[in-house]
């Protein structure tokens, strides 16, 4: 969740394409028509809105490196003037994601780059996205495209509660998190983009097996996240990644690249990403266990036990079996009751049933607050929608918007009452994490290196996934590996 000066609620009709899997190469054209003026205009209009939704574009040597690799792999697509026609952006986002939109705009998050272990993997991910552009996948499915900001999507979801199933409704809510609602492409299109990425790797001289290894790392990270967050389903949450189940695609990608060889540029890649910001950016707030702390907004709250959080560019999402919630903000005119009423109105849209039974004022840890609850039918049952708002002064307010099965709204009571202002000293102690590339010494082991990871839980598991090390696999002296450390 950003500071007030960077908060974005932009809606866009751009089509975010997902990183996924591959079909028969025999049906894939070796070259594509140049990007048209219409496609370029579509991308140019959506580009700044997507940057705002995904934490903004990073600058500096690391961003330049990603751009260089992406533009070089784009040349392999056969698109006329591919290098000049593609805009490749490194996004300041802590989720593992990559996507593209028409007009040659390709994006990858710094978190996904941190998960990679060589330049070939970076080229493979970007090549997949270039493949989506070259194959004009978005144009084929544009009629289905519908992108919204966090509040816009949530409003549509809540507005459709009447007549909708509670399971589907809660599931849609949970998918919002920090990302746009992305267009789902057909399996054949996703497979085609994967295979195009493998082809581009091969013609560029990279090791095409990198496509399967980066997918394996992504699958391992998804599984680790599920374990650390206490979830049973490792393929979730899709709010944290638009990549549909990378585990199911590792085998296919490995088969398609079997017998192919090429360079990986591992050491070059690791040297170039050394120092990259990892995890949450303090300017957008950080998640530490069950606690969310925003040093610039000077606030903190604690999620309920058994729930997990994801921090995005426009909201903090809190998800669990008992319900879902988001912390975000809206325009504030100075009246906290009106603020709550306006949030309900925005969430409900034309749904006249989404009105709070009453709006009550209260105080939470010295912070003036107000809240309301609305109960509506879902078709298969009833749900409660809660808006709990806080007045932070300087004509600024923040609010939770939550949804639970009817009668279960108290699952978030502790979280609502945990909201507090933090001191300047506590804010100053929020230190970011970074990637630190080190060379393995003669006395180093996986265990000794893992103990240097800036986490109190899962140190060895985090180290292995970060470095693509299988269970039981050891490190060797002279090898470069990644650590996650505090400060820089």
Automatic annotation (TrEMBL):
Family matches, as Pfam families: Peptidase_M48
Keyword annotations of the record: Hydrolase, Metal-binding, Metalloprotease, Protease, Signal, Zinc
Superkingdom classification of source: Bacteria
Domain (LysM) ranges: 436-483
Name of the top EC class for this enzyme: hydrolase
EC number: 3.4.24.-
GO molecular function: metallopeptidase activity
Keyword check for Protein transport: no
Signal peptide as annotated in the record: 1-25
Taxonomic source organism: Qipengyuania spongiae
Protein name per UniProt: M48 family metalloprotease
InterPro entries: LysM, Mito/Outer_Membr_Metalloprot, Peptidase_M48
Cofactor dependency: Zn(2+)
């Amino acid at each position: 969740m950003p500071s007030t000066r960077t908060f974005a609620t932009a809606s866009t009709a751009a089509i975010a394409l997902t990183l996924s899997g591959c079909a028969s190469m025999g049906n894939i054209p070796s070259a594509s028509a140049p990007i048209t003026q219409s496609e370029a205009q579509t991308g140019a209009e959506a580009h700044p809105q997507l940057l705002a939704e995904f934490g903004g574009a990073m600058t500096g040597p690391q961003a330049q490196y990603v751009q260089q690799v992406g533009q070089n792999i784009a040349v392999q697509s056969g698109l006329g003037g591919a290098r000049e026609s593609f805009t490749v952006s490194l996004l300041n986002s802590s989720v593992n994601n990559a996507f593209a939109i028409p007009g040659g705009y390709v994006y990858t998050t710094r978190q996904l780059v941190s998960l990679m272990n060589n330049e070939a993997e970076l080229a493979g991910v970007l090549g997949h996205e270039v493949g989506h552009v070259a194959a004009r996948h978005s144009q084929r499915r544009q009629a289905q495209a519908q992108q919204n900001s966090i509040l816009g999507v949530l409003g549509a979801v809540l507005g459709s509660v009447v007549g909708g199933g509670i399971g589907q409704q809660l599931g849609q809510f949970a998918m919002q998190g920090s990302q746009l609602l992305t267009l789902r492409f057909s399996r054949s299109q996703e497979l085609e983009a994967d295979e195009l990425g493998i082809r581009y790797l091969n013609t560029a001289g990279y090791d095409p097996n990198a496509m399967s290894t980066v997918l394996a790392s992504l699958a391992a990270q998804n599984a680790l996240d599920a374990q650390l967050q206490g979830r049973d389903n490792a393929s979730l949450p899709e709010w944290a990644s638009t990549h549909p189940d990378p585990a199911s695609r590792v085998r296919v990608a490995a088969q398609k690249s079997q017998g192919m060889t090429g360079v990986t540029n591992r050491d070059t890649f690791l040297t170039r990403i050394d120092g990259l910001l990892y995890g949450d950016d303090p300017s957008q707030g950080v998640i530490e266990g069950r606690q969310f702390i925003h040093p610039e907004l000077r606030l903190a709250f604690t999620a309920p036990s058994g729930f997990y959080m994801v921090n995005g560019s426009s909201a903090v999402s809190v998800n669990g079996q008992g319900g879902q919630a988001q912390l975000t903000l809206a325009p504030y005119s100075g009246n906290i009751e009106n603020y709550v009423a306006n949030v309900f109105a925005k969430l409900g849209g034309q749904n006249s049933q989404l009105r709070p039974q009453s709006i009550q004022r209260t105080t939470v840890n010295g912070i003036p607050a107000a809240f309301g609850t609305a109960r509506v039918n879902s078709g298969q049952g009833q749900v409660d929608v809660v808006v709990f708002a806080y007045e932070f002064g300087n004509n600024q307010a923040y609010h939770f918007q939550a949804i639970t099965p009817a009668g279960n709204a108290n699952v978030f009571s502790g979280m609502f009452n945990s909201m507090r202002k933090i001191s300047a000293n506590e804010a100053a102690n929020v230190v970011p994490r970074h990637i630190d590339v080190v060379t393995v010494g003669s006395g180093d082991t996986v265990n000794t290196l893992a103990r240097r990871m800036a986490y109190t839980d899962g140190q060895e598991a985090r180290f292995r996934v970060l470095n693509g090390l299988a269970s039981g696999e050891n490190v060797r002296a002279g090898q470069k590996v990644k650590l996650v450390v505090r400060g820089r």
